Amino acid sequence: MSTVTLQPLRALLADWGRSEGLSWVFVAKALVTAFLALWLAYRLQLPQPSTVLVTVFIIMQPQSGQVLAKSFYRLIGTFVGLAMMVLLIALFAQERVLFLLSLALWIGLCTAGATRYRDFRGYACVLAGYTAAMIGLPATLHPEGAFMAALWRVLEISLGILCTGVVNGLLLPQTSSSSLRSTLAVRFRDFAGFAWEGLAGELPPTRFEQLNARFAAEAVGLENLRNASAFEDPHYRLRSGRLARLNNEFMLLSTRFHALYQLLRRLHVAGEQGVVDALQPCLAEVAAVLAPLRTRLCSDAEAVQLAERVEACKVELMEQIRRARLQLNMQQPNEAQMLDFNTAAELLYRFADDLHSYALTHASLLDHHHVREQFTGAFTPRANGTAAIVAGLRGSLLMLVLSAFWLATAWPSGTTLVMTAGMITGLVSAGANPKRLAGQLFVGACGGAVLGFTLLFFVLPRLDGFALLCCALTPVFALGATLLTRSQWSGIGTGLLVWFCMLSLPANLTLYNPYGFINEYLAALLSMAMATLATALILPPNRPWLWRRLEHDLRMRVVFAVSGKLKGLVAGFESGTRDLLNQAHGFSSSRPDVQRQLLRWMFLVQEVGHAVIELRQEQAALPAQSCYGENTRWRRAIRVMGRALIRLFVRPTEQHRQRALTAVEHAIAAVRGTPEPRAPQFDTSPLRRVLSYLHFIRSALLDPESPLAPAAGAAHAA
Amino acid sequence: MPREVHVLGVYMPSLTLLFLLCVLLGWGLDRLLAWLGVYRHAWHPTLLRVSLFICLYGALALCIYR
């Protein structure tokens, strides 16, 4: 009887533990960390316990790997900031104007760096910037003690980092590695479902677009998770190279599938039913492998079996394709139909091949050491240079205006004014919507001001001892930490906690000075309001100017594919294109039509760029025979085509598209006219493979749904 | 070993330098154990790593404050 009633309760509890329970654990950990750090700060008699807690709350993250990674980069950022500040103080201790000018320049540089890199390296840039402000500004008032003050700040920051790292790593760690593992498995399951539906021809266009955007976002997210996991778990550090390879292979796999799917769709639209029917058994062969994968998560051990299944399927698929070709030949197809069939069949075979290597890499995660660990194709994030410069200039300008105000009014709280501006600029620089984040930080700091005033002047004077202080601080910290766990309000949580700790936390020797307190808070709030205004008014990133630039950057990926160095080209192309799309998607989240347009560009760039890279790899691996020579007609025609494609993607006009089409057709004719002493199968004949890549580029250029199509081009120009 | 050493004209507690030394040693030890796969058998790998570091630091600190 009791088991019957206990069962649902247990299930409910387990459910709670996976969802809401995690937030409670996070809040509890935040409180433990904060009080441990605060106690140590008082016990060690550090001059500013507030810096310790500010550090704690800035690096506080739900996942322990993220905390460790952030801590590591924060330490680096702190030391760089410290070195810079000691230099600046040594140079300009007597000259505040020069000092503030160079500080503004430094903050601008760091903000630009943060916008440029956007991962943990960007985080180090942010911290180098605002640690400099935190150390340098108070020191300008007392240059004689500047060096000691700077050392104290570094000690305080290190203590905060140490406490957060230890508590988050030891107490109920919510590991990044488990999150990485589940993301990988879920992504592969969803991809299998997506590919299965696509091969069956049942994929609605909206879902196709959504999933593609999601896979791009996950490719970027996984790279960050991989970095964080390497910090946290020695098990994953040994597998870091394989995980990077897995991510890269997944990108390749999805690009290949994308090409296949587009080709099949175009065949449908063009009414080439004969070719599609001939391909059907081959498609069914691959779909049969995918079918069991789309309903459950694939573990490492199952990946071993998957690899074996795919290997068997590849052999069978080759036979199927030969049979289908014979069958199609009996219907007397024309040249174009045969080319369509060959291209699709080859893409399908290569898709199975990619699936095989993905499964092998996934299976290799089982072993502690493996040859697949050697992977050199790094994930290369791409950011728009202009956007980074704009962010840097915005930060510098804000610092300059506020510094000028401070110098002109000689306001005693001027340090807080300028320091807050430096911190805000850094914190918001990496987000997709800086205006919203700055607004949230402002709201949070307002809440912190009210709570801080009440606590400091009405509650704390009646208390005695550390235990009671903790009791008084618990509600505030718990509220802030709860807000941190809700992603839509996390900015408010950060604002509340950071500025509460910075301005209303009692030091070892508590000073109750209401005027000073109100002055400080006024300075902080004024500075935040100015920062919000600056992010809203000075070229905010979620506006058409940046969309156009990112679209241009996306198109330039094809130029990179045509002219970049062949070594590391695949990984660089795949990851960079996805990273660009992911940013563009975030910056245009308010405009679904813009998102759609950018996604269509990304599709086209992916198709053409990928085919061009395959072409180049094929040419680099040609055997030494006279028909494959550097100066044969077909290779010259392909070089001409490359230049035409560059012109087209730099300036996408109808005229350039026609020229590119002519160049591709010319290249196709040249390849066809070259005699080759090999069997005309795509596994034996390089020219056959070259022909299908060329044909694929041609079909991508002709696609009526691409953004290059005449109708779309006209709308674009208007 | 003296309890304070002077580095570039600044007196520092030897413990600070020892801490930095231990970070390096501990990092090396950690890499080695991870390579050998010792952590796979641990219930709470992070706890083991932190404890190992504390043991190392404690043992070296005893050389100074014995």
UniProtKB/TrEMBL annotation, chain A:
Which residues are listed as membrane-spanning? Answer: 22-42, 72-91, 97-115, 122-141, 147-172, 387-408, 441-460, 466-484, 496-515, 521-539
> Which Pfam families does the record match to this protein?
FUSC
Subcellular location, principal: membrane
Question: Span of the secretion signal?
Answer: none
Q: GO MF terms on file?
A: transmembrane transporter activity
Query: Which UniProt keywords are present, listed alphabetically?
Result: Cell membrane, Membrane, Transmembrane, Transmembrane helix
Listed GO CC annotations? plasma membrane
Subcellular compartments: Cell membrane
Membrane topology recorded in Swiss-Prot or TrEMBL: Multi-pass membrane protein
Q: Which InterPro entries match?
A: PHBA_efflux_AaeB/fusaric-R
Q: Which PANTHER family match?
A: BLR3852 PROTEIN, P-HYDROXYBENZOIC ACID EFFLUX PUMP SUBUNIT-RELATED
Q: Any idea what this protein is called?
A: Fusaric acid resistance protein
From TrEMBL, chain B:
A Pfam family of the record is: DUF1656
Q: Which InterPro entries does the annotation name?
A: DUF1656
Keyword Transmembrane helix assigned to the entry: answer is yes
Sequence intervals crossing the membrane: 7-27, 47-65
Q: Is the Transmembrane helix keyword given for this protein? A: yes
Keywords, in A-Z order: Cell membrane, Membrane, Transmembrane, Transmembrane helix
Supply the name of the protein.
DUF1656 domain-containing protein
The organism encoding this protein is Pseudomonas turukhanskensis
